[in-house]
Amino acid sequence: MSKKYIAILTVVLAILIDQISKIYIKTHFQLGEEIIVFNDWFRIHFTENNGMAWGFEFGGKAGKLFLTLFRVVAVTGIVYWLWQSIKKKAHTAVIIAIALILAGAVGNIIDSVFYGVIFDSSYHNVATLFSDNPYGELFHGKVVDMLYFPIYEGESFTFFNAIFNGADSWITIGVALLFIFNKQAFPKEEEETKKVS
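Below the sequence we write its predicted structure tokens.
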């Protein structure tokens, strides 16, 4: 399989997994509802956020719009980076890494752009897809998060209390792969460093 098709397949599958899981959670869970999947440290906990990856918030309604538009611009840059990497026949792991980062960015953009106009509220309610009474506006949707791994919970401290989603996971895995394969991902920078030293 060519690197181009590996990239396309990675992006499509990653976005589908992310969106199917989010739509399932939205249409089967009320906001704040939780189930324990494994041994109390892996839970599905439905929450939503207005901000960045891993549940960070950013500047209210105006900040939300700015962040969504910034993501759209960033995706354009990532698409160009992926295309150039394919043309230069970069290592397959690098292609997959960039494709995962792209899929993660697109996955959260879909929430931010469209979820406010296709779902009603999940507050004390299981949301309806394509609702006649949507909870928000175009470009002001909330990002769905559900993966929760509280590795340790004490009375006043929880280790790793972030709640995240598939898209966040793809970005994290992609960045990790770029770190592992940094010599293949950034060969020119490596060569220039050797010349200077």
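The mean pLDDT is 88.
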